[in-house]
Each structure stands twice: as C-alpha cells, then as structure tokens.
Amino acid sequence: MPPSPRTTGRVTLPIEEGIDDRLRELVAALGADAVRNSDGTWLPEVAAELVEKVYSTYFPARGDQEWALAHPDTLVNQYLMSPRITATGPEPLRIDVMEGYFREQFRPCYERVERFWEVIDRTTGQVVPVQGWSVEEATGILTIARPEPWHVYTVAFLADQVWDTTQMYNYITNGWGVTDPTRVKERPYDIRKNGVWEHVRQALRTWLESHPEVDVVRFTTFFYHFTIAFDAEAREKLVDWFGYSASVSPEAIDAFEAEYGYALRAEDFVDGGYYNSPFRVPTPAFRDWIDFQSRFVAQRAKELVDITHAAGREAMMFLGDNWIGTEPYGEHFASIGLDAVVGSAGSAATTRLIADIPGVRYTEVRFLPYFFPDVFNHDGGDPVGEANESWLTSRRAIVRRPLDRMGYGGYVSLALEFPEFIERITEICQEFRDIHDRSGGELPANAPFAVGVLNSWGSLRTWQTHMVAHAKWYKAAYSYGGVVEALAGLPFEVRFLSFDEVLAHGVPEEVGVLINAGAAGTAFSGGPAWADERLTGLIRSWVAAGHGFIGVGEPTAVDHGGAFLQLSDVLGVERERQLTLSTDRYPVLVEDHPVTADVEGVFDDGEGAGGDVYATAAGTQVLSYVEGSVRVAVNEFGAGRAVYFSGLPYSPVNSRTLQRALYWAAGREDLLEEWFSSDPATEVAWYPGQRRFLVTNNSSRAVRTSVRGMGRTWEVEIEPMGLVWTDVTDVEC
C-alpha cells in the first residue's frame, strides 16, 4: 500500500507556561488535538488556542494545603508493620514502630490504639493481649512488658500520612527541595473524615467555575493511593500497585464492622508483612474489604463526576496513583459514569488493561518515557530508546485492541532539549493514527476459540497477573508475566476466570484452552484451590472431552494426595521436590513438534519452575530437556491435549511458541496456515471487512517474512520496528 497521508488528532500533549511559540510548533508537528498539565506544571493562557480540548489534572484528596493544615484530624491513614524484633530475655521489649520508615511520610496514629494496633508473637502466632503492652506517644516506642525469651514480635499499627504519596514521589524524584524549596509538602485528606467530603465537593465546584478553559477534568485519581512506603533514607521500601493498605481509617473499619457484622483486625491488613500482595491467595476478609471500599469509592466518585458533567465538562480518570477502590473490571466501576480512562503503558499487558476497560466512552494511553529529568538528561539518559521500547511493546496490544487516544506526560520543556526524541514521537503519533485509519475501526480477526486464564482473582484483575509495581520487571515474576504479555498481542479473545466462577458455572463454552501459570502457593497458581476435588474433577473431565490445558511453572500445585501438581496426570509432568529421587526416569524426547518449531537451541524458560520437573507417563512427549529437567512437554488426555512450560518469559520466540501451543492444545494446528508469519519477530493482523492485513516488526532489525493466509503466501520486507499494510483484493473472502 502507498504511504498514509499525514493526519492529525488522537494525541494529548503535556504543556507548561513560558514556551508558547515552541508549543505551537510542537502541537503542529505531533498533530495533537488536546493538551494537559502535569503535577507541578500549570496551563498557559494560550492553551485553549492550541487545540480542541484542554485537560487539567485534578486531585480531589489533596492540593488545598491551607485547609489540610487547618483540619489536622483528616489525614489519610495507612497500616504498617514494625520490623520483626527478637526478645533476648524476659525483660521488657521496646519496639520503635517507625524504625525503617520515612518520618516525613508517616507518623503513628494513636486513635484507639487498643482497637487498631496489634502485637503478635510471630513464633507462636498468638496475639499479645492489650494489657501486655503500652505505647509512649511522645516517642512511638511500644513496650511489651513480659515477652517470651527468644520469641519474635511485631507490631501492626495505624499511621497518619503527613505527606501525600504522589507529591512526595514527584518532589523527591525531581529534586524540588533544591530547585523549588518554597514548594509545600502537601498533606492528603480522607473523605470519610469529618468535613472532608463537603469540602471536596465544594472545592470541585469552585475550581470548575474558575477554570472555564478546561474541557476535560483529569481526576488523578480519586481518594486512596496504592500502597507505597518509603524507608528512612527516603527510598522506596514497599510498593504494591494493587495494595489497599492506605485505604484504611478508624471510620472505615468501624463502618465495615457495622455493615458486615464482624470486626477486622490489624493483621487482616498487614498480613504478616505480606500486606495482601496480589500474589497472595486473597482471604475472605480482604475480598470483603475490596468490595466494601470499591462500593464506597464508586458512590463518592460518581458524585464528583456528576458535578463535572453538570458544569459541561468531561470526566477522565487516571488509572494510577489514588486509583484504589476503582477496580476497572469490578462490578461497581461502570456506575461511576466516567467518560474516559487514561493510564500509563509499560507493557503490552498494561496497554490491554487500559484498552479493554468497559463502561467508558474512550480510553487513552500515556506512553513512556515520562518527561522527567531521570530520563531527559545529557548524562546517560536515553529518551529515544525508551520511547521505542514503550511503543514496540504497546503496539502489539494496540493492534489487537486500539485505544482511542495516546499521549505523553511530564515537563515538555525537558523533551524539547532532545530534537531526535521529538522527531521519533512525531512518527509514533502518526503510526498510532494510521492503525485506526487503515483498520477502518475494525478489530482484527481472532482464533475461533477463546483462551481462559485461570487463577484466584479472575476477571477482577483482567490483564493484571504477576504485576507488582505496574509493569516493572521482577526476577521472581517475569517467567510467568510473559504469558499475559504474549497473549496481549496474540489473535485470541482472552477471558480471566476465577476458581470460584468455574466451580459455580463451569468453563465458559467459548473457551477452548485454559492456562494456569504461577509459582506454588500464589494466587495465580491457586494454592489450596487445587485441593478441592470438585475443581480437579471438573477440569479433568473438561480436558478429556476435547479441550486444552496449558500449565506454566508450578500449575495446579499443592501438596495433596501424594502429588504436588494436582493435574500431573493431565499435564504429564510433576515437580521434583527431592522426595522421589529414588525413582528412575526415562523420558521420551521428541525433537520435532509443531509447538517448538520456532525454537532454535535451548528453550528459554527464564527462572524456570524453581526446581526439576520430570515426566510422569510413557505418553508424555518431552520437547525441551535441559540437565535432567523438563522445560517443555506435551501430553494427550482423553480427547484433549495439554502443554507444559517450566517458565515462559516474554520474547518474540516464546510468544510464537505459546501461540503454537494454544493451537495445538485446541486441536487446531490448521490455524498455523491462517494469517501466520514465518519470522517470530513479526505478527500478522487480518481485517476481513477491510480485506487487508498488517504485519508488524517487533524487532530492531530489518526482516523478511512470509505471510500465509487464505491459501496464499506473501513475501514481506519490513524495516526495523516498522509495519506493512497489504490489501487483498483478488481473492474471495
């Protein structure tokens, strides 16, 4: 096809004061039709002249420092846990609960300490009675009167947040203490507390009246921040993008008890120091808290959205920062009535997380890098490299489910110091628009069966498995995160299913293959769920009836009934835990198989399954075997099929291998000839309504690839990171 004409629109640009002429040039270059401010910048007067829409960041739970200081009893709370302290004798044990925490971020909250603090002997698991300890409010020292010698103790305590989390992060990251020492350290306030909600509503009305130039209110976000705690050196100590530890308060806990009929303990929040990480199998109490807070946040957020709409403006939510309680795939989210959601894209999975959100009119992605000095500097910063990485990873997802808009964030004055970066993002903006224009608004064709990802969370955490801090890389998780990263750009409808849902309703009819991926004991593998005979029986019968099952790492793992992988009979493999070393193994090694046809050399399983894996049956075909351990195996079970991977970190080859595995497990190897490319670095999207296909090159090298579809083959050459559109006009569809 000929090159696309240059178009405009679908792009939001961050702007700031003092560079009006440069802004006009940049808006024209990028084809931007919307502008926005960022935390720490202000919209210039020329904003409304530049584009069709003006966004403005709005912080409902902070920003009015004068009011916050005048109402010191309205601070947001957070549950924290002290270090584990060993009693070395029977004498009183003194614990500084704030040891290791950033005292500019937190201070102990002494409201009803007997109710909201909890001391636990971690050696025995017993709670130390309130009568057995005391707190000195002047120092934050808790003293256990008579500890058991050589037992370990912790204190779970409610803390006040005296510095807003987001502003603190931006303040420290950007060095505002040096560059802008007059900037205040903003205090957050909790809308459950006395007078706050009335103030928040009126503040929004007043702000809307005084900012007629704003078309879109970009709520950043609503009320409760995800869990972040800094250490004594002002470094990140604990980060959980899904954490609810900062959504607590005496008022909320009391309201929960009144509604649910039982009292939550401090331990329900600190969770032994795990803080209800999304990797933990969620407890019933934590599930109740999520639902409780989500209903409350949705009700209050809807009131702010209604105020915004009454003023003739659009309401947009940033998926991040104070997003806790707005679970976008939860049952309460749509009731908020938002016009749009915008979020940061750090991967294909996070891009799909934003793109697939139901209940809004449009979605927008904020690409990396953020225009901050940690990247935009002349001392090793690589903004072009980060822009390319962000675009390549996100583009896979955008092709499958295009977001309506894209943009960037931060200080545009920094970006303007790097003309090569501006040139590159100008190309990215046009390519983004081309995907919309050339697809004609049509989604590309998917396989004729859906894929189900089975874990404890199900649809509530759609596209959110194995994430800690949004899309950051973690050694312990990347071998599993590659599963959803690959799926985000592959031609499948993906359903995220919980064990409870499957037990209640069975596997949805449209699902042809189930995937269970994760480390033993985690929410993603399932832990104790697999000790339930109803679940294992249901899945066995479903696979035997002609469906597929793919396990990654330690799938279906729980020590029960003499097995560790409870569906080892289906998968044809088992984990060696040094308990069956006396048993000899004679695996059947197979060199050529459709699943591993693109693998050259040793299959990359990342960190693997955490130990050796062995075949359990003569019929198990081992496709990759390294140092006596299975990395890839396939097995037939009744009329169905199963595939096992010891790990699946994302790479083009592994993504292609997963695609092949899904086709094979579903008994649809014929699909390897339908809109399939020969080079794993390339992917194909077929638009039957447009009679057009797209081939993307996900690598930084030029490629030549063969594309097969509709009984034909096309030879396609693609430049590094490029894409090629091809019309199919002479073949009946």
TrEMBL record:
GO terms for molecular function: 1,3-beta-galactosyl-N-acetylhexosamine phosphorylase activity; 1,4-alpha-oligoglucan phosphorylase activity. Residues 451-670 form the Lacto-N-biose phosphorylase central domain. The keyword Ribonucleoprotein does not apply. The keyword Nucleus does not apply. GO terms for biological process: carbohydrate metabolic process. Its EC number is 2.4.1.211. Pfam families: Lact_bio_phlase, LBP_C, LBP_M. It is an enzyme of class 2 (transferase). Residues 9-445 form the Lacto-N-biose phosphorylase-like N-terminal TIM barrel domain. Residues 675-725 form the Lacto-N-biose phosphorylase C-terminal domain. Keywords: Glycosyltransferase, Transferase. This is D-galactosyl-beta-1->3-N-acetyl-D-hexosamine phosphorylase Cphy3030. It comes from Actinomyces howellii.
